[in-house]
Amino acid sequence: RRRLRPRLPAILLCCWLVILLAPWPSAQAAGARITDIIVTQASDQLVVFATLEEAFTPDIEESIVNGVPTTFTYHLRLMRQRAFLPDAEVAALTVRHSVAYDLLKDEFQFVRDDGRRNSTRLTKSYGEVKRWMAELTGVTLASRRLLQPEERYYVQVKAEIRSVSLVFPFNYLLFFVSFFNFDTPWAASSLFRVSR
């Protein structure tokens, strides 16, 4: 009688497919969204403010306080409204908010990078670092000289929420931590015209 050999490669392949095809939480499921987009015209610049809401799911909060580096990447687009054509992109900017928790110092390090400047802040307050991560405050998007007074414009913002992949041996030490990867939908400001 022939003995059946265990088909380990086939079993591993099936497990891998189940993991890949499993419904991972999305930004829509988590309810993460951009709100309160305000565009101000400060001196010669367009300055943007916005808020990311409902992004801190229990998985994200657990990952952050367990020391997993986390990045919120904000994409901003200045758009010109057009009547019979797709709206035109006038300017774009990417802003990254990153947080890493130092378990030994009991301290959060927050880094904001907009491609032009890089600033770092430290705090022991989780509530404070959550606010820093979720708020775009005073982001200079573009020069007002790019805009025409007779045209109408708006700003779009979306966020990507990512946990950073850990290197060996931390990926094994923190096996109990959930990792995540999702985006918010685009949100748009009210229409505005440039003032002269």
In percent, how much strand structure appears in the residues? 35-45%
What string gives the helices and strands in order? HHEEHEEEEHEEHEE
**How many E-type strands?**
10
- Mean pLDDT, rounded to whole units? 81
What's the layout of helices and strands?
Blueprint lengths: L7 H14 L5 H4 L2 E10 L2 E9 L4 H8 L4 E11 L7 E15 L4 E7 L4 E6 L2 H9 E9 L9 E11 L6 H4 L7 E3 L3 E2 L8
Antiparallel strand pairs: 1-2, 2-7, 3-4, 3-8, 4-5, 5-6, 8-9, 8-10
Descriptors:
7-stranded antiparallel sheet; 196 residues; single chain; 5 helices; alpha+beta; 3-stranded antiparallel sheet
Structure description:
With 196 residues, this protein is of the alpha+beta class. It is 20% helix and 42% strand. It is built from five helices and ten strands, in the order ααββαββββαββαββ. The strands form two sheets. Strands 3, 4, 5, 6, 8, 9 and 10 form a seven-stranded antiparallel β-sheet that branches. The chain is elongated. The N and C termini lie far apart (91 Å). The model is unreliable at 14-29 and 166-179 (pLDDT under 50).
Give the gist of this structure.
With 196 residues, the chain is an alpha+beta fold.
